[in-house]
Amino acid sequence: MRSTDGLLEIGFMRTVFDSLGTGVFVTDNTGRLTACNPRAQQMLRRPQEQMLGHDMHDLLHRGPDGATVPRDECVMLTVLESGRPAEGSDELFLRGDGTLVPIIWAATPLRHEGRAEGSVVVFHDFSLHRDAAEQTAAYLAALEGLTARLTMVAEVSTVLISALETPEMLDRLAGLLVPDMGDWAAIDVHTAKQAGEMQRVAVRAPHDHRAAEALKGPLPPLPESTRSAVVQAMRSAEPVVLDADTLAELPDSPLARAHRELFDRLGGSCAVVVPLHTRRQVFGALTVARVAPGSSYSEAEVFVLADIARRAGLVMEAAVLFEQQRHVAETMQRQLLTPLPQVDHLTLAARYRPAESAAEIGGDWYDSFLLGDGVLTMVIGDVVGHDLKAAAHMAEVRNMLRALAWDRTEPPSLIMRRLDEAMTHTSDAPMATCVFARIEGEEGGPWRLHWVNAGHPPPLLITADGHTRFLEDGHGPLLGLSSALHMGLGWPDAHVDLPPRSTLLLYTDGLVESRTRDIEAGLATLRRHAAALARRDIEDFLDELLARIDPSGDDVALLVLRTPAAGVGAGTDEAPAQHAHSPAAGNRGAPGSRIEDTPVRDTSDPV
Questions:
Q1: Half-sphere exposure of 204 toward its Cβ, with a 13 Å CA cutoff?
Q2: 237 vs 152, 220, 221, 276, CA distance in Å?
Q3: In angstroms, rounded to a whole number, what is the distance separating the alpha carbons of residues 439 and 447?
């Protein structure tokens, strides 16, 4: 009965041995194979008759190059000598078809009745696990590279949209590309002076900063035909990849020699030249190079560089369009802001500061002219809108006011009523604000201000000793709202005497209101600074006032009047009177009116 039980147990164990899903070897004390299960035969692609009786190490164990591993380095055989289990995952077995299979294994000494009988080696095909690990590592590396590229592109985009000037933007762009995309970078662009002229505006080479700076400057003009990579990239609007063989070619034009000088001074074994372009225009070329021998650029890297250059081209095109629109708007504004008249001992000055954005140049204006009765007028106004259309409407309203006022001795309120009706019935101009004032003087008497205000910030009167007062009277509805008149609203006339050596300031809301400051705070700031500047010459008064307040965002117009000292008035002969309609004044233009784009004083050209 026991014999039968033993046979059943052996049979059961044999079934388990054959059914295991992993390879199993049994060796004797010398390392010869005495048993192997079907899974081992399958993984090694060898039948058992080709393995049993053979030395396991000599038959199967191989190094990465396929050579037999020295016997004294076989960690599986150490189990036979030490009698202790061992395991590993970096060994290779030779298959019957000559290929190598990586295995993960574990070896255990085989003992029977206290005697060492050999070892049992359990192993599994590790190739699938290793391939998956390698794929995961490759994926993570690719993901890391992509993340780095996306981070760089994000940084580049930030630079492109935040830099105020194109040269600054291009220099910072070149700096961002080094060293991630190359050991140095250079940018060559067309100049605006003459067609075909080139200039190198940026060179970044951390390993040789002095040489990089020396390579900036004017470049030879674009040649008609050349192999120059810069010209090829600019004319084809496609990237040009340079390898060591291409870089070894002799340059065939002055521009090609100038481009080759980059590599002579900074080194380079490969490079990519990409055009800075849009669909409509090519502005220049970006060159990025690597110095180490054998370096190269992948297709993905070329694509990234081309995309960055395209983005830079779009920003450059936007900058060109910005300047063109700004120039058109400023030219229009200069033509509309006429010279200031000179009347008796009164002194006038004006400033116009365009908005920072070209799209916001438009509706503000100042004006001063003599009426038919010889009375001086002062006008400040603002048409709704911030664009070229607003500037055109401003010109329309301004000219309407001149035409309605110049030959009339009516009170300002009637002039304002006529202007409102004209805007409503004969013009498509939108709403507008305006202060219209007459400066009247009697023989030997004081100067007097007579004015109305159509929804505009109040004029500011500053006495010679620094007392300030906003002229709140005369206030009525905005222009362009004739319905307000039908409701009984209008523009009440207001009067005030102007003390000797006093200063009258008219201004638009851009001086006192912004996105970060409400108008009440702005008015308080204006009042404080104006009081402190009361004794300044009116030219200095305006310049210093703008410098202290530093308005931003909207355009700003200012018109200022200074009355003479006591005893000097209309009709006195202390000094000769000049009038804007006299030939001398008309030909010369009046000092004091100008557009503020720089702090440089310009009295020869008032506008």
A1: 20
A2: 23, 20, 18, 8
A3: 7
Q: Is 224 exposed, middle or buried (0-12, 13-18, 19+ CB in 10 A)?
A: exposed
Angle made by CA atoms 93, 98, 102, in degrees to the nearest 5: 30
Phi and psi dihedrals of 420, rounded to 5? -65, -40
Q: Long-range contacts: 225-228, Cβ < 8 Å, 24+?
A: 226/252, 226/253, 226/255, 226/256, 227/252, 227/256, 228/252, 228/253, 228/255, 228/256, 228/259
* Distance between CA atoms of residues 395 and 96, nearest Å: 96
DSSP bridge partners of 495 = 450
| Run of H or E residues at 515 | none
CA distance linking residue 242 with residue 411, whole number of Å: 78
Strand partners, 22: none
Tokens of 290: 């690597």
Q: Answer for the pair 415, 404: CB distance below 8 angstroms, yes or no.
A: yes
- Tokens 């003599």 correspond to what residue? 370
What is 123-172 written as a DSSP string? EEE-HHHHHHHHHHHHHHHHHHHHHHHHHHHHHHHHHHHH-SSHHHHHHH
DSSP string across 315-345: HHHHHHHHHHHHHHHHHHHHHHSPPPP--TT
Res 44: pLDDT: 93
What are φ and ψ of residue 143, in 5° steps?
-65, -40
- DSSP result, 5-55: HHHHHHHHHHHHHHH-SSEEEEE-TTSBEEEE-HHHHHHHT--GGGTTTSB
Q: How far apart are CA 563 and CA 319, in angstroms?
A: 44
Q: Which DSSP letter does residue 372 get?
A: T
In order along the chain (607 residues), what is the average pLDDT of each group of 10 residues?
57 73 90 92 92 92 89 88 86 91 90 86 81 65 62 65 76 88 93 77 91 92 80 88 90 90 94 92 93 91 89 86 72 69 87 67 84 92 79 86 88 92 84 94 77 96 96 92 63 94 95 83 94 95 94 86 77 39 32 40 31
Residue 205 contacts residue 212 (beta carbons within 8 Å): yes
SS3 of the chain: helix, strand, coil, percent, to 5: 40, 25, 35
CA distances from 546 to 359, 524, 549, 550, 600 (A): 22, 15, 5, 5, 13
Helix (H) or strand (E) holding 440: strand 432-441
How do strand 270-277 and strand 282-290 relate by DSSP bridges?
antiparallel
Which residues touch 262 (CB under 8 Å, ≥6 apart)? Answer: 184, 186, 203, 215, 268, 287, 289
CA separation (Å) from 429 to 115, 266, 305? 112, 61, 49
Model pLDDT, residue 195: 64
**Closest to 208 in 3D by CA, of 176, 240, 186, 181:** 186
Which of 436, 429, 434 is CA-nearest to residue 408? 436
